[in-house]
Amino acid sequence: MDGIHDLGGKQGFGPVRYTLNAGAFHAEWEKRVNSLYAFAVRSGVFNMDEYRHAIERMEPRHYLTASYYERSLTSLATLCVEKGIVTHEELERRAGGVFPLAAESAPGRTNVATRQAFKVGNAVRVRSEHVPGHVRMPGYIRGKSGIVVGVTPAYPFPDAHAHSIEAADEPTYDVRFRSEDLWPDSAEPALVHVGVFESYLERAV
Amino acid sequence: MTRIAPIEQRVAAIQGALDAHGLDTSKAVEELTHLAEEQWVPRNGARVVAKAWADPAFRKRLLANGRDAVAELGLAMPKHHRHLVVLENTPTLQNVICCTLCSCTAFTIIGLPPDWYKDLEYRSRVVRQSRTVLKEMGTELPPEVEIRVWDTTTDTRYMVLPVQPPETIGWPEEKLAEVVTRDGMIGVARL
């Protein structure tokens, strides 16, 4: 999904708001939200891929202006409504006001049929695909070439797992890209690594 | 009804709905909050780094299979953190971790991510302007230091193994762990 969450390489943002020993939480309710969504995952209400995608499906203006834990809360509430645990009306009655939820999901997809295994050292290209549902391919690597520097065990395929679609688990590859290849003449030199699912890759020629 | 409910009321609403559905939240919230505040702390990663500095055989095992190596110290990782890759800094190499798509970290080892890590600014800029971003955060790297950025996009988690400060060579592990910071293990600071 080419949503607003896909922030890597976006321009116009100001300095990082860095402080030494910065905290993870700044209010009691944030801790409560963090625990509630983790509890829902542990209880099997939804999985981490569904959780991530429900954040991505937030209306872009809401996504950008919400705090991090408000996004967690919105995902948790959206999924509880979609899974039939509570209705949206009941949530708003309990909250005593409007309770904005994320938008409906586009369909997911299963593994790419022509995927193939790679080894460390292989030159690979990220397929130039546009996936409307959940996908863990940041837009900045789409169609770009790099070198495999690591291979992992097989993980659940997020494009399927976020949408209750059957799929085989897939290995992922840590792929090394040159920042100058990702953003020609428009990036500081660095090596940028992304964990890329097998279905997203093809052999570079 | 047009007014957006205050955030605390929305949190209470979803908690009430989960309770009404038969998922008893109160004990779980207490337990998970305790884990977040007391157990998932950077001190865990600091112990790992200190041991890697002091024990070359452990360092080798840590770099080969992070998840198994941290388990030797009694440190667990969640089910969806299936693999831990430890990135070794050198005097001429700086590794930096991020999550451009959300906020993923090896939180049981290096602690829950700080606010700036989850902010839009760090997520958008660290992959494209890494040297400038580090400088803004107080770490100005000489030009000969290569930067390697690692975007956390799968169930793999990363942590940085900082360069051991030379004055600490020979120190006992407990004392070494005291010089290891969370930001050093994220890779935005050098020790």
Automatic annotation (TrEMBL), chain A:
Signal peptide residue numbers: none
Its job: NHase catalyzes the hydration of various nitrile compounds to the corresponding amides.
Nitrile hydratase beta subunit-like N-terminal domain sequence ranges: 1-96
Name listed for the protein in its UniProt record: Nitrile hydratase subunit beta
Catalytic activity: an aliphatic primary amide = an aliphatic nitrile + H2O
EC number(s) recorded for this UniProt protein: 4.2.1.84
Organism: Usitatibacter rugosus
Superkingdom of the organism of origin: Bacteria
Enzyme class, first EC level, given as a word: lyase
Keyword Transmembrane carried by entry: no
Family according to the record: Belongs to the nitrile hydratase subunit beta family.
TrEMBL record, chain B:
UniProt entry keywords in alphabetical sequence: Lyase, Metal-binding
Enzyme class: lyase
Domain of life per record: Bacteria
SUPFAM superfamilies: Nitrile hydratase alpha chain
Signal peptide region: none
One annotated GO molecular function: nitrile hydratase activity
Matches recorded under InterPro entries: CN_Hdrase_a/SCN_Hdrase_g_sf, CN_Hdrtase_a/SCN_Hdrlase_g
Name this polypeptide is given: Nitrile hydratase subunit alpha
Gene designation: nthA
EC number(s) stated in the UniProt entry for this protein: 4.2.1.84
Family matches, as Pfam families: NHase_alpha
Organism, scientific name: Usitatibacter rugosus
Residues in Nitrile hydratase alpha/Thiocyanate hydrolase gamma domain copies: 7-189
